[in-house]
Structure formats: structure tokens, C-alpha cells
Specification:
five-stranded mixed β-sheet, 45% helix, alpha/beta
Length: 395
């Protein structure tokens, strides 16, 4: 009897949890009013009319739920402007046949369908707003097509740019930016305002940095994207990515010194990167779509498929160079890398089924034999290659 009561208790608890999760999923979908829902009945007609970027998802999928707010922001950016592209989604628990037809084997799967074409191009990058907008621009053929239809930020007033939801991501996607996120009613923001204007004015002739501001009461999605919790928040952004949060004194002199420090730091890192590249050019082979097949056709080739913006790739880079140095004198082993963001490499990365960065594949005599998923320290990577080299010698 006691056992039955315990079982009944756990059964009811599981039912309650299931209903709770279902309610959470449902409420999350109700909040997204911008994304167009494609179905089996409407899908072909929709992709015939306009370019479509489609998220194939399942409501219970955790990754889909985390992507949801970003996808809604993307839809708000494009769908509200009657653009040349529509941001859409397909619920694979409802239209399973449609998802099967498009080879959806995991959630979420993101595919871009050019107008009139029934076969989509799969998105394989990180699922953040700058990466998604860049991917759209690339698929449309040139960045200018999207830029031309995107409202530009107003001309800077004495060096200060005021950004909006429509202009923010395109403005910050390249270069160095010091951005003030604020609310008009905030006392600290009001106190900082003249100093921020003075900073922008003093740097208005410096093309290496942009000083801007965002009103979070008007452009909430931008501030949510960067997880702004208080006002004012001052962020240093490089190529669309948050690099640092300023927490120092808010005098004109302190702010200007901070800008100089960050620019010098970025320039130094760029120089070190170039010097490192020059000194190790013979240790790690840089392959492209044209050179790949020839380069891996003999011996053991251990290849890193990466993207320059990927944090895990950046952390692996010096270790990968050391690994190349260890095998430099061994003619039977090639340590190589492929930058999947380059036009000459995108098709190669697609064909090699690179779904995340970094992806590490080992090839023997031109044939892919193994994917490395272990620890990325030098000893383990070296041991992995040596094990394959020994097994090859034993044959």
C-alpha cells in the first residue's frame, strides 16, 4: 500500500511538472508576435514569394527556447519593414512531414531559402543576433543590399550617435564602439549626459572609435540583448561583441583615458596576433577549399575548422600552434586549420559537416577517420595524433 502511494505521488509530480513546462513553452510562443509561422500548407507559397530564414523547432526543446527571444528580435528587425526577407518558423511537432522533407534531424535547425528555391542553406554559426544578421547579409549576396534597406542612424551630432533598434546592430558590427545605455528619468544618466557629449565632441575627428548612446526606454530589445541591468551602463564593443564594461570614474578625462587604453590594447593584441602568425606560418597549414583535398591526401592530417570570432577557437589557437610545432619535423603528420568564415572555405566546411566551432577532424590519406572530442590541452591532442600514427604504422 505504501509503495503504491509513493508511486502515485511521483506520478502526480511528473504530470504537474509536464503541465508546468508546457505552460511555460506556450507562454513563450505567445510573446513572439513578429515571427511568421509557416506550415505544410503555406510553406511553398511563402518561399516562392520572398527570401525566408526559417527556424525548424520543437516547443519542448531547450535550445529552441533559448533562441526564441533572439529570433523574435530578428523578426522584429526585418518583418516589420516589408523587407526582401521574412523571418519564420516551423513547429516540427505539428508539421513533422515538412521537417523531414528538409532533413531536420535536430532542433533548432536554421535554414535560409532564397526566393523561388526549395532547398535551403543551413546556418552553422553561433546563434546570436550579430552572427544571424551577418549570415542573412551573406546569403542575400552583398551586405549593401541589406544596408540600403536598413535605416541608418542619424548623423552624429558633435560626434555622438543616437542608435535605435533598427540601426544598432548594423552600426556596431564592425570597429570599436563606446556605448552608453541609459534611461531619461535616471538621475545618474542626466548627470553624465553633458560629460558624454563632451567626450563624443572631443573624439569626433577620431575615426578609430564611435561614441554613441541608446535610450533603453525606447529600444528595449537592444538593451535586453546586452543584458543591461542598470543605468547608465557603459560598454566597450568590438566588431559587434561586448568586450568590457566601464566601471571607473565618469569624468571627461577618465572616460577619454579609458578609450585610449582600450584602443592601445586592441592595437597591441592585433600586432601580437600578426607576429604570432608570421612566426608560426610553417607549423600550421592554412587550408582553403582549393588546397584542402591535395593537402590531406597523404599521411595523417589533423584539421581545426574554426571561426575567428569564436571564443573557444581563440583559446585553442596557441595550443594548436604548439601542436604544429611538435610535428613540424614529421613528414607523415600535418597540423592544419580552416577558417570557415572565408568565402573560399564555406562550401568546404559545409561538405565536411562542420556544425560548430572549433571542430577537429583527423584524416588519413584523404579520408576522414575520426572527430576529436576530448580535452583541448596539448598533451591530450598530441596523444590523440600519436595513437592514430602508431595504429597506422602497425598496419
Amino acid at each position: 500500500m505504501a509503495t503504491n502511494l509513493v508511486n502515485l505521488f511521483f506520478f502526480k509530480k511528473q504530470i504537474w511538472l509536464f503541465l508546468f513546462m508546457l505552460s511555460q513553452v506556450s507562454s513563450g510562443h505567445e510573446d513572439d508576435i513578429h515571427t511568421i509561422q509557416y506550415t505544410k500548407e503555406t510553406f511553398l507559397d511563402e518561399i516562392k514569394q520572398k527570401n525566408s530564414f526559417v527556424m525548424f523547432y520543437a516547443p519542448w526543446c531547450g535550445h529552441c527556447q533559448r533562441l526564441g527571444p533572439i529570433w523574435a528580435q530578428l523578426a522584429e528587425m526585418f518583418n516589420e519593414r516589408d523587407d526582401i526577407i521574412k523571418i519564420a518558423k516551423v513547429d516540427c511537432t505539428v508539421d513533422s512531414t515538412l521537417c523531414s522533407e528538409h532533413d531536420v534531424t535536430g532542433y533548432p535547425t536554421l535554414k535560409f531559402f532564397k526566393v523561388g528555391e526549395s532547398k535551403g542553406t543551413k546556418f552553422r554559426g553561433t546563434r546570436d543576433l550579430p552572427s544571424l544578421t551577418t549570415f542573412i547579409s551573406e546569403q542575400l549576396g552583398s551586405l549593401s543590399k541589406v544596408e540600403d534597406d536598413t535605416p541608418s542612424p542619424p548623423e552624429p551630432v558633435n560626434g555622438l550617435s543616437e542608435l535605435t533598434e533598427e540601426s544598432f546592430n548594423f552600426h556596431i558590427r564592425k570597429g570599436y564602439h563606446f556605448v552608453k545605455f541609459y534611461a531619461p528619468w535616471c538621475g545618474h544618466c542626466q548627470k553624465l549626459a553633458p560629460t558624454w557629449e563632451e567626450l563624443a565632441n572631443s573624439l569626433r575627428n577620431d575615426d578609430s572609435v564611435s561614441i554613441s548612446k541608446v535610450d533603453c526606454t525606447l529600444h528595449r530589445s537592444v538593451c535586453e540583448q546586452f543584458e543591461i541591468k542598470g543605468y547608465p551602463t557603459l560598454l566597450w564593443i568590438e566588431d559587434g561583441k561586448k568586450v568590457d564594461k566601464y566601471t571607473g570614474q565618469r569624468t571627461h578625462e577618465d572616460l577619454k583615458n579609458y578609450v585610449s587604453t582600450m584602443l592601445e590594447k586592441s592595437a597591441e593584441e592585433s600586432t601580437n596576433k600578426d607576429e604570432s602568425s608570421d612566426s608560426t606560418i610553417h607549423n600550421v597549414l592554412s587550408l582553403t577549399g582549393d588546397s584542402f583535398k591535395y593537402s590531406v591526401e597523404k599521411g595523417i592530417s589533423f584539421v581545426k575548422f574554426f571561426a575567428p570570432w569564436c571564443g573557444h577557437c581563440k583559446r585553442l589557437a596557441p595550443t594548436w600552434e604548439e601542436l604544429g610545432r611538435k610535428f613540424f619535423a614529421n613528414e607523415d603528420v600535418h597540423i592544419a586549420k580552416v577558417d570557415c568564415t572565408l568565402n573560399t572555405c564555406k562550401q568546404l566546411c559545409y561538405e565536411e559537416e562542420v556544425d560548430s566551432f572549433p571542430t577537429l577532424y583527423l584524416y588519413r590519406n584523404g579520408r576522414k577517420v575520426s572527430e576529436y572530442n576530448g580535452s583541448r590541452n596539448l598533451d591530450d591532442l598530441y596523444g590523440f595524433v600519436m595513437n592514430h600514427l602508431r595504429s597506422h604504422d602497425e598496419l
